[in-house]
Amino acid sequence: METKYYNEEELNEAAQALKSGDLVAFPTETVYGLGANALLPDAVKQVFSVKGRPQDNPLIVHVSSFEQVKTYVDNFHPATAKIVENFWPGPLTLIFEIKKGSLPSIVTGGLSTAAFRMPDNKKTLTTIELAGVPLVGPSANTSGKPSPTTAAHVFHDLQGKITGIIDDGATRIGVESTVIDLSDPAADPMILRPGAVTKEQLEAVIGGNVTIDRHLVQSSETPKSPGMKYKHYAPDTQVMMVRPEDWQEAVHWAKEKALRVGVIAGPTIAEAVRFDVAAVYMYFNDSVEAATKGLFAGLRGLDEENLALDLILVETFPEDGLGNAYMNRLKKSANQKYFEK
């Protein structure tokens, strides 16, 4: 099939395509999602097929209002109202226990819970409203590979496989939403996947404790949230993390082994090593915000066949605040591997 780009005047056409069971990729503030009608199991099956994604992985249900969530959930965590008021629309996904049979099991991964998000993107919210149905929306890419942060990334992976793409330029944040488990009203909220909304921000709003689930889901387990697998977001080229103090030695080691190396880093590191490596993807400044926005684009950019790289070395950041989200994605891209002296 021919994959169409939908402009702002064609959102109703995109919405009707989604409602009828077609697949349309949509923009959010985090990454691009692969949209399908969450109430049509056959449409959702196509999502798994197109992505090559295992069906034990639950999907996030995208809504245009909190009122939509109430169709599927009737027992909310006490912190829900404050969280929704402060963070929706935005990069935060909420997991609730749902009414039995209210959503297809293919959406929930066979679990009794479901994940919901209201994305902060005007075009996508309008499309969901026009469709009149919630949309599943995993990242619009080949499963396991770096998530798409532009419509061009989506087209690269899925052209000819989906009906269309709603283009809204590069995403603002660059990594997927924070996922927080609110399925047990008696328990503290638990972050299952870090993102732009941090533990500290959530605790300040709810006035209570938020825990973090740090275990990595193995292939034999059914994850409660997307993005919990041990290895994920990985390009075909091997990725290795480099600590700030190890860059000179890492580049020297690679040269000694005659490896063709690419580097992903901020200007300070990139400028220091650029003449000793084959390719550089430079973040627009040295901040963790710039790194988070650019990580997936960098991994995709340096994984092109014409570069023929043996290894991609990537800058690390402290694991606090937004650094938790960045390092979560980077560790999985690198299969947990650091350069070691």
Automatic annotation (TrEMBL):
Cell compartments where the protein resides: Cytoplasm
InterPro entries per record: DHBP_synth_RibB-like_a/b_dom (IPR017945), Sua5-like_dom (IPR006070), Sua5/YwlC_C (IPR038385), Sua5_C (IPR005145), T(6)A37_SUA5 (IPR010923), TC-AMP_synthase_SUA5 (IPR050156)
Ligand binding (ATP): R53, N57, T113, S139, S147, R193, Y233
Enzyme Commission number, as recorded: 2.7.7.87
PROSITE patterns (UniProt xref): YRDC (PS51163)
Primary localisation category: cytoplasm
Pfam families tied to this protein: Sua5_C, Sua5_yciO_yrdC
Coiled coil: none
Record's keyword annotation contains Cytoplasm: yes
Domain YrdC-like, chain residue ranges per copy: 8-197
Any GO BP annotation: regulation of translational fidelity
Any GO CC annotation of this UniProt entry: cytoplasm
Catalytic reaction(s) noted: L-threonine + hydrogencarbonate + ATP = L-threonylcarbamoyladenylate + diphosphate + H2O
Keywords: ATP-binding, Cytoplasm, Nucleotide-binding, Nucleotidyltransferase, Transferase, tRNA processing
Residues involved in L-threonine binding: T30, H62, R117, S177
GO molecular-function terms, A-Z: ATP binding; double-stranded RNA binding; L-threonylcarbamoyladenylate synthase; tRNA binding
The keyword Nucleotide-binding is assigned to this record: yes
UniProt function note: Required for the formation of a threonylcarbamoyl group on adenosine at position 37 (t(6)A37) in tRNAs that read codons beginning with adenine.
Family note: Belongs to the SUA5 family.
Entry protein name: Threonylcarbamoyl-AMP synthase
Organism: Enterococcus durans
